[in-house]
Design goal:
By secondary structure, the protein is of the alpha+beta class. The chain has 2 domains: 123 residues, no CATH class; 73 residues, 2-Layer Sandwich (Alpha-Beta Plaits). Helix content is 59%, strand content 19%. The protein has 8 helices and 6 strands. The strands form 2 sheets. Strands 4-5-3-6 form a 4-stranded antiparallel sheet. It has a two-stranded antiparallel ribbon with strand order 1-2. The protein is elongated.
């Protein structure tokens, strides 16, 4: 029994550490040591749940791991500029690594190993697929500031259409003779670059951000 518990702890540390190495390589907030602790902790709680609860109530402690790990995952999610939310992938990884630890603690080694390999594949390989998709279609928020003129918003929207971009106007603020326009724009990287090049050559534009 003691050897079995030791094996479970070592496997939890191994698979948590492998996932953590990928997060550490990408300089994420939850890295190598954190993932080992999460996996090993979930494994330990599951083992203790089985020992304390017995066969009739084996999920007595383990059922609370999912709730507890949610608070830890929430700690790595934050809102950045332009209303962008960061850390969701790391939070999901924490949640999944905890599940891997629970699987090992319950003795389901093959399921835990399969889940770990799938997590590593998603984290290490799929970003390249995302990058390819991003070249084809990406969404950016454009903010253009310039001297007010009648119909100027339509002028820039026609320019977006010319560069085959889809858009949605999200803001329009006029302060004295200065007009600030904001759009959410979607299209390929090539079309975005064409549009920003055209904006940079527009002498009436005082400032633009994207």
């Amino acid at each position: 029994m003691h050897n079995e518990i030791l094996i479970r702890f070592l496997l939890a540390a191994l698979w948590g550490g492998i996932v953590g190495l990928e997060r550490e390589y990408r300089s994420k907030s939850a890295g190598f040591r954190t993932m080992i602790m999460i996996s090993t902790g979930a494994c330990f709680f599951t083992i203790m749940s089985n020992l304390i609860g017995g066969s009739a109530n084996a999920d007595r402690i383990a059922s609370n791991i999912v709730t507890g790990i949610g608070f830890l995952g929430a700690g790595v999610i934050f809102r950045g500029g332009e209303n962008r939310v960061s850390g969701i992938t790391t939070a999901a990884t924490i949640w999944t690594v905890a599940a891997v630890g629970m699987g090992i603690g319950a003795g389901y080694y093959f399921a835990a190993a399969s889940a770990s390999l799938l997590v590593i594949f998603v984290l290490a390989i799929l970003p390249y697929v995302e990058a390819k998709i991003d070249v084809i279609s990406q969404t950016k928020t454009y903010s253009i500031q310039r001297t007010y003129a009648a119909g100027i918003a339509v002028f820039y929207e026609d320019m977006m259409r010319h560069h085959h971009l889809k858009f949605k106007r999200t803001g329009q603020v006029k302060q004295r003779d200065i007009l600030t326009l904001t759009w959410e724009v979607r299209g390929s990287a090539k079309n975005h670059n064409g549009f920003t090049d055209a904006l940079s050559k527009d002498e009436d534009v005082q400032r633009f951000e994207f």
